[in-house]
Fold GntR family transcriptional regulator.
Amino acid sequence: MTQTSFSETAVQSDDRAMVIRDQLRDAIIEHRLVPGTKLSEAEVGKLFDVSRTVVRAALQSLTFEGLVRAERNRGAFVASPSPEEARQLFEARRQIEAGIARIAANQATAEAFARFDACLEEETRLLQERGPASRRAAIRASGEFHILLADVAGNPIMRRFMEELIARSSLVIALYGRTGASSCGHNEHGDIVAALRDRDAEGASRLVLTHIDHIETDLDLRSYAERPLREALLSVE
Amino acid sequence: MTQTSFSETAVQSDDRAMVIRDQLRDAIIEHRLVPGTKLSEAEVGKLFDVSRTVVRAALQSLTFEGLVRAERNRGAFVASPSPEEARQLFEARRQIEAGIARIAANQATAEAFARFDACLEEETRLLQERGPASRRAAIRASGEFHILLADVAGNPIMRRFMEELIARSSLVIALYGRTGASSCGHNEHGDIVAALRDRDAEGASRLVLTHIDHIETDLDLRSYAERPLREALLSVE
DNA sequence: ACATCACAGATTGCATACAATCTGACCGCC
DNA sequence: GGCGGTCAGATTGTATGCAATCTGTGATGT
């Protein structure tokens, strides 16, 4: 979707490890790999036909991003953010994305708006479709919008932070999402773009904040006591 | 200084790699390792008496943080942020630290203020001393203050971002720092703590912003054309 | 029947060996 | 003398082997 890949994040070395990293990352973001899933080095290595060395590098990379949890002598698992972590995540998103929106309002070029339009079209298209596959794609596209926002702001450092936050948000939605409408809301993305077009930095910032609030509201973070059980059930290898 | 170590950031596995990572990281932050220095796997491994495998993990970790630049089949080097990257870094810091200050103003406990006081005392003590060693320690202590701010805000995710930003700022100061007063200014840290004590979120946020502006002002980012030469000279192994 | 302990299987942690690649020097040629 | 190519050394990329650690099973004793 976005033409810039994740190469920003990573080393240009580690070709192979990066490919595996991105594949696993995509699978996690699209909820094909659910939280708690064990990522055995040997198994992953066999799937991608590489040695454990390369797999370890990829898993380490994902661990730094918070998408994978590594336990000593136990192995690596797809992360299962706690409700508390989820709250911290959204707090961080509010702080960072508000700033990004302000910057983007001043920086956005015509080319940027073209990308926004393409992204919005893709989103609405996917939302009209039904089925789990398009649900996944919709969550992904929703994330792409936020990353695009960071991209337009033109700060690679903040863009990388956003990538991490978005990816982890996807995990949170997988665990605590209620409707799945979390991803898009009532064309709030469109409203944000409109504010950007008006160069209304404060308006865009405010819209982003309420948008994130809406995403968070759609989560079920309250059932603190029950979660460990459900998590455990999902974690059964 | 701060009792919480960097364990937040990392995997609890990779004991040994983490130790090396932290040692290298500290050396970079304290300017004992200057930008451009080559970090040969074999050499580092010999120094710490571990195999290249462990060193690679440590270097990979530092690469993700942006403290090390890895070139395929060439090796790893202490990063040399460009002036452009430096600007982006401070832009990110303004966005993130302003938010952190607001949160910290509401969250700070008595225990937090005790830590602030200890940090400020340490800073002023180091500033009174002369010599390169205390200069290094001062830069380090200055960073610790900002991390402490993030710590008090109570959001581990933003804390981790701050750790990265502070570490990279130290690199930038090493490259472009003019006076070294970059680290502290005119007791601006103390003013920030005072605002926190007053629960003045907006005031604290504003003070943080001007503080970061002052740090950036003290840098010499203008001489774009000359830098590559100086950088190259510093990079001579 | 229950609890405890010991062992076997599996998985990760680490070191090392080999292959691929790059850098720099030397040599021949123009 | 300058330029280009080839080769040796060094360094990283990857695979694999062995040691350390953990999990779960089964036997044994109370």
Remarks:
- The domain at 83-217 of chain A is CATH 1.20.120.530 (Four Helix Bundle (Hemerythrin (Met), subunit A)).
